[in-house]
Amino acid sequence: MLIACHAQAGSGDGKTPQSQTGENKLSEAGLKEISLTVRSGSTAHIFTVELAKTPQEQARGLMFRTDLKPDRGMIFPFDRERMASFWMKNTVIPLDIIFIRSDGTIESIAANTTPYSLEPVQSGEPVTAVLEIAGGRADELGISAGDKVDWQQ
């Protein structure tokens, strides 16, 4: 099954972002924003990510976005462990697609994925989440397989 990390169905409910200090802050796309930490050795890299939980949110992903700040991203949590397959259809910017195991460790990273590509980008084993960040950012920060990812929904 291809998860179009940038697929067809739209999401968002037209809500505007809430207060910067509010607990249920929403992105411009109407998705909940949460804090996520990637631990690489003794270094913690903190991102603000949009939470794509529903099939519609996951299908839309980061499609049509023309910019992704270095400390931003999107997390795709799954309700069960599974093989993950993403593509870059309608995705304007390159992304690092990070596959996350059930214990929070990074299984693999597909770095600098090609915008608009229909080629599947797949995990090497079943995972419970996928994180997307700006293309090349994982390498810049030294994020690699085995590092730990933590977030709360």
Description:
- With 153 residues, the protein is mainly beta.
- It has a single domain (33-151), classed as Protein of unknown function DUF192 (Jelly Rolls).
- The protein has 2 helices and 9 strands, in the order ββαββββββαβ.
- The chain has helices at residues 55-60, 137-141; strands at residues 33-40, 43-51, 72-82, 85-86, 95-100, 106-110, 121-122, 127-134, 148-151.
- The strands form 2 sheets. A 7-stranded mixed sheet has the order 6-5-8-3-2-1-9.
- Strand 1 (33-40) and strand 2 form a beta hairpin.
Throw out a few tags for this protein.
globular, 153 residues, seven-stranded mixed β-sheet, mainly beta
Q: Helix amount, in percent?
A: under 10%
Mean pLDDT: 87
The parts where pLDDT drops under 50 for at least 5 residues are 1-22
Radius of gyration: 14 Å
DSSP helix count?
2
How many angstroms does the end-to-end distance come to?
24 Å
- Name of the top-level CATH class: Mainly Beta
CATH architecture: Sandwich
Outline type: globular
Count of individual beta strands: 9
Strand-residue proportion: 35-45%
Derived structural class: mainly beta
Q: Output the helix-strand order.
A: EEHEEEEEEHE
Query: Number of domains in the coordinates?
Result: 1
Main sheet record:
7 strands, mixed
Widest beta sheet: strand line-up: 6-5-8-3-2-1-9
CATH topology: Jelly Rolls
CATH superfamily placement: Protein of unknown function DUF192
InterPro entries: DUF192, Saro_0823-like_sf
Protein name: DUF192 domain-containing protein
